[in-house]
């Protein structure tokens, strides 16, 4: 196999190559997605460089800065050049209308939002209404609780995701799931993320593939996307240093040019910068944005 730095060779953290080599569920290949089901981003969103319409900044990465100066921090994000952002379940004590007014004034769009599995199961319609008011295009389940980490748990989650996806689609929003490490760790020989993909409707559900977590799980991102064509709708971006720690985008070992070259043919439409615990959040925001704006592939 051709080596593409760490993204092709894989990087194992907390799992062995043997454990990750177990057969996955057979998933029928898709000839092509129904693109009308996917919120539109201009076709120029992928090309020889990653342009602003395809980039976003996540709230969680800058949460400590937001706690200190909410409006000012988002203004800095806008001044840096970002035009899209991702929020989570919290509206920071504000109404959707208040947030929309603020972000409109900064020329920022809340293109994506993350919600919990509890919200997906219990109050999803309300979350969709709030998200429509914010202008959200992508709603993503942010994590799978450890208590649900069984094959039966994932089968039920797949049913919940199909139901949520139908509600979101009716509203013109694309629903999906954001992975962490555990979705790639086999349970009784079955990779949970493969199970979710096998038992969800591609017209109703796609993935927000967190590339950093996938690489840490030993997953070859390009091979994964090849095996599941058009099932990845958006990216979460975090780089991985040689020692397995987080790094600003472009400062680690992941071959981003190879991934984006492939993603451009898979119609991946949005990339959200998402480092979990950067020691200097703003330095990582700035360095990641600068790298992505200059990335050629």
Automatic annotation (TrEMBL):
<dbReference type="InterPro" id="IPR013022">
    <property type="entry name" value="Xyl_isomerase-like_TIM-brl"/>
</dbReference>
<protein>
    <submittedName>
        <fullName>Sugar phosphate isomerase/epimerase</fullName>
    </submittedName>
</protein>
<keyword id="KW-0413">Isomerase</keyword>
<dbReference type="InterPro" id="IPR050312">
    <property type="entry name" value="IolE/XylAMocC-like"/>
</dbReference>
<feature type="domain" description="Xylose isomerase-like TIM barrel">
    <location>
        <begin position="75"/>
        <end position="263"/>
    </location>
</feature>
<feature type="signal peptide">
    <location>
        <begin position="1"/>
        <end position="31"/>
    </location>
</feature>
<dbReference type="Pfam" id="PF01261">
    <property type="entry name" value="AP_endonuc_2"/>
</dbReference>
<dbReference type="InterPro" id="IPR006311">
    <property type="entry name" value="TAT_signal"/>
</dbReference>
<dbReference type="InterPro" id="IPR036237">
    <property type="entry name" value="Xyl_isomerase-like_sf"/>
</dbReference>
<dbReference type="GO" id="GO:0016853">
    <property type="term" value="F:isomerase activity"/>
</dbReference>
<keyword id="KW-0732">Signal</keyword>
